[in-house]
Design brief:
GO terms for molecular function: DNA binding. With about 90 residues, this protein is an all-alpha fold.
């Protein structure tokens, strides 16, 4: 199974800032177990908006980037779909 895009964003943040998976999950607003399920089973559906907001804030990424990763992981978008972003997403 390919690593989910949301997990790739999380892993990049963990490497850059040296934060543990449990602590990062807490800061995002999810459980460590939920993050583990994303990693091992993939995303079954879109997480709640508050979860994606928390992830964008904690990972210091535009909300649109986090949303796009979640939409691709949940199969709402495929490789050929393009998501337009605006400057207000940053």
């Amino acid at each position: 199974m390919e690593t989910p895009r949301l997990v790739e964003l999380i892993d990049a943040h963990k490497r850059a800032y040296g934060v543990s998976e449990a602590e990062l999950a807490r800061r995002i607003g999810i459980t460590r177990q939920n993050l583990h399920l994303w990693r091992t089973r993939g995303l079954r559906g879109l997480p709640a908006r508050t979860t994606l907001d928390g992830m964008a804030a904690e990972l210091r990424l535009p909300y649109a980037r986090v949303l796009e990763a979640a939409m691709r992981d949940a199969a709402y978008l495929d490789a050929t779909d393009h998501v337009a972003t605006t400057e207000t997403d940053a």
